[in-house]
Design goal:
Number of helices: 15
GO molecular function, one term: transmembrane transporter activity
Largest sheet: none
InterPro entries: MFS_4, MFS_dom, MFS_trans_sf
CATH topology of the largest domain: Growth Hormone, Chain: A
Keywords: Membrane, Transmembrane, Transmembrane helix
CATH architecture of the largest domain: Up-down Bundle
Radius of gyration: 20 Å
Length: 398
């Protein structure tokens, strides 16, 4: 069966997301216990390695915000794909902590390229070819990556050493990059007619107050995302009868996230984007709140599923909406939002980790996370009001 050009473009961008985020970033989560057991990796070093990766992602988002040239974005996106493969392979080549910090930092840069430039380039292609500007399929790459790393980790953790496991992840990324490079589209090619171009040029931009409010709400969403992503498996492993089931919970998150994006796209067509986005925020808050109760196995599984489908929906719908509101430079607007999302990923784990160390419990940190998500819900509702007051047409287009 011959693939259409649109299918090839989407496959390229999805696979790029799996490589740069699913493997280069998420493989680190199941690798931590293996590295701790084989070479005595301490929690302190593990935390700094995670911080280095988040810092790279943050810097990548900031750098991308200054990129205006389409050809430069395409070139950096390609480099990001190759860096993801190289940094994953090189993790196996040394035990020098400073080299690891550098590799995880560069891996974070590649993740920013894969997500922000990949989403922006896909949005650009869809708009220029008069297709629906939806990114649900693209962001399924995050869920696919989680599923891939969870299953791979379970298959290789017994027979292979920690460095061999990193090589396996690296070769997997190397295999996946082949169809990406082979089918890489000409993103600069356009079939947009003069009528659509004129419409794009005359579309007003939202107010700065709206963007800052949305950015603050997205910061809160980043806080809720990273606390669960960082500590969910730790919480699971501490529960009676749940030892060794952390990978199952991580797998459930990925299974829920993978189809979650395009399911949210379908839901958006029925109830509207802002209503759907608000509900995703609420579900994300509920997924964290469930962990505050006496969690049974079923409650943990429900929390994992709600978390997987909600966090991916928030990211997908927010960035797709911003891409439609700021069509001239979608990647720049996405990167500004992602910078605040990434900032939360640096602050939240450190804060919750310190609180957990002092209290020997995650309860206080989870309470803080629920409160932050409630603030995010309020800010999101305020953003809708500001956008509606500014221009009704913008609200419709978003």
């Amino acid at each position: 069966m011959k693939l259409s050009e649109q299918s090839k473009v989407q496959l390229v961008c999805v696979t790029g997301g799996v490589i740069t985020v699913g493997i280069a970033r998420f493989a680190y989560t199941p690798m931590l216990p293996e590295m701790a057991e084989d070479i005595g990796l301490t929690e302190t070093v593990a935390g700094f390695l995670a911080a280095a990766n988040y810092a790279g992602y943050l810097c990548g988002a900031l750098l991308i915000s200054f990129m205006h040239n389409l050809q430069l974005k395409i070139k950096v996106y390609r480099y990001g794909l190759m860096a993801a493969v190289a940094t994953t392979l090189c993790m196996a080549a040394t035990t020098n902590q400073w080299v690891w910090y550098l590799l995880r930092y560069v891996s974070g840069l590649s993740s920013a390229a894969g997500v922000l430039l990949g989403a922006g380039l896909l949005m650009h292609w869809l708009r220029n070819h008069q297709q629906k500007a939806e990114l649900g399929i693209f962001f399924s790459s995050l869920g696919i990556g989680i599923v891939l790393t969870a299953i791979t980790a379970q298959l290789i953790k017994i027979e292979y050493t920690w460095d061999q496991q990193w090589l396996i992840y690296g070769f997997l990324a190397l295999i996946l990059i082949i169809p990406v490079l082979f089918w890489f589209p000409d993103f600069s090619k356009s079939t947009m007619g003069t009528q659509q171009t004129a419409h794009k040029d005359t579309q007003p931009l939202p107010s700065k107050q709206f963007f800052l409010t949305l950015q603050s709400a997205y910061f809160c969403a980043g806080f809720g995302y990273v606390v669960t992503a960082t500590f969910l498996i730790a919480i699971v492993e501490l529960l009676p009868g749940m030892k060794g089931l952390g990978w199952v919970v991580w797998l459930l998150v990925g299974i829920a996230a993978a189809p979650g994006c395009w399911l949210w796209d379908i839901y958006v067509r029925k109830v509207g984007l802002w209503s759907s986005l608000l509900q995703a925020y609420i579900l994300n808050m509920v997924s964290t709140a469930l962990l505050l109760f006496d969690p049974s196995t079923m409650v943990i599984f429900i929390s994992a599923v709600l978390y997987g489908c909600s966090f991916i929906g928030i990211v997908s719908m927010t960035l797709a909406m911003v891409g439609r509101l700021y069509p001239e430079n979608a990647s720049r607007s996405m990167s500004h939002l992602t910078f605040s999302y990434g900032l939360a990923q640096v602050i939240a784990p450190a804060l919750v980790g310190i609180m957990a160390d002092k209290s020997e419990s995650f309860t206080q940190g989870l309470v803080i996370t629920v409160i932050v998500m409630l603030v995010g819900i309020a800010l999101l509702m305020r953003a809708v009001v500001i956008l509606k007051q500014g221009n009704t047409l913008l609200l419709k287009n978003s």
